[in-house]
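Pipeline run #58 for the internal structure catalog. This entry was flagged by the ingest filter as a single-chain record with no existing model, so it goes straight to prediction. Upstream metadata was stripped on purpose; only the residue string is passed forward. Reviewer on rotation: M.T. Logging verbosity set to normal.
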Amino acid sequence: MSIQSLPVASNPVLRGCAMLKIVYRVCCGMDVHKSFVVACIAATNEQGVTTYKSKRFSTFTGDLRRCAAWLAENNCKDVCMESTGKYWIPIYNILEHTCNIVLAHPKYVKAIRGKKTDKRDAKWIADIFKHDLVAGSFIPPPDIRQLRDLVRYRWKLTNFTTGEKNRAQNCLTVSNFKLDDVFSDVFGKAASAITARILEDPTEKITDISGFRTKGMKATDEQVLAAVDGEMCAEQAEKLRIIRSHMDSLELCKLNLESLILSTAEKYLPQFNLVMSAPGIQSFAAIGIISEIGVDMSVFPTSKHLCSWLGLRRKTTRVPARRKPLESVEPEPTSSPCWYNVRSVPFEPSCSRKSATAISLSKSAGDTRKPLSQLPGCSLQLSTICSRKMSLTILNYTGRQTGLPHIVRFLLKKQFLFFNGRVIW
């Protein structure tokens, strides 16, 4: 055990400085690992002096109970620890009955780079937690956590079944059986009967389909016979038998699990009925929602926090605008570009070139703004569909000049793009 003292209020260097408010006078920070946990208690007295006590415990249940007793001896009721994989759950199960636990995301309690040790990490968590600088995660009560675990396992079993169906379909495909082309559901009643008939004797061809027809079957006998005209080797046939047997086992396990879920969720029947009043939400969907958010909505400050917890908030990521290639530019106004219609007028430039093109800008046909006055001394009329301030800037500039080449230089200086008789901002 190590004991350290940090004087805060009596330090002359810190006098007159704004200090963080100490919210938790006695708190504990825990650095969680797979086989052990390092706990550091930070106790601050009335003079602002913080004393630290550190101790290491294993993650066996008996040692975790001794950790809870050690916290009680030091009158520590507030504990903060980071969520490290699944290793925090055994500690949470033991301490949640006697302590107020704040489970923090690792990025919020990450220590500063340097000589990191387990004791320093636990001390750092205690330091930031005593000032209430750690945002805790939502942890539902034990019964909701058990229901959530069962619902998530049911979803896993559904994924396992889907994977086995894909493998069964691959067996049929590599054996030249095209049941997926004539049946909407390869694992329906008619298609399953045909698959079972194939597995009885893979070498024997099917010549009669009448015994496999069902009421809703749309494919003709000729189409089905063409689809089952394949050859399945002994290895693929045995693999398909194992897959079908595994699918049957998964279905039985799923039925047993659903029975356990319904019995566990029976106490929340009024809440389920309320959730199922929304259109499109059935029984297991309502159970899945309750298992994730619980029934106590006071833990979420606003509806936005609830949507964020469920992952339903829209992600707002700004994508930088990409400039189109010149050959793909269309004369359609957008929010950022400024478009001008251009027509060519010959003029005599002041440079050494023999000929040039004078740019005359006229109002776009789709623009409803009031056209600007024509520039004196030249046949140039300016209008824009976005920034009127930019238009006034150009007018003020050209008003102090004489001759058309100055506006051309101005446009080039402002990096206008010329293409197909248009000037694109």
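catalog note: The beta strands are 2-6, 26-32, 36-44, 50-58, 78-82, 100-104, 339-347, 356-362, 417-419, 422-424.
catalog note: The radius of gyration is 37 Å.
status: ready for reviewer M.T.
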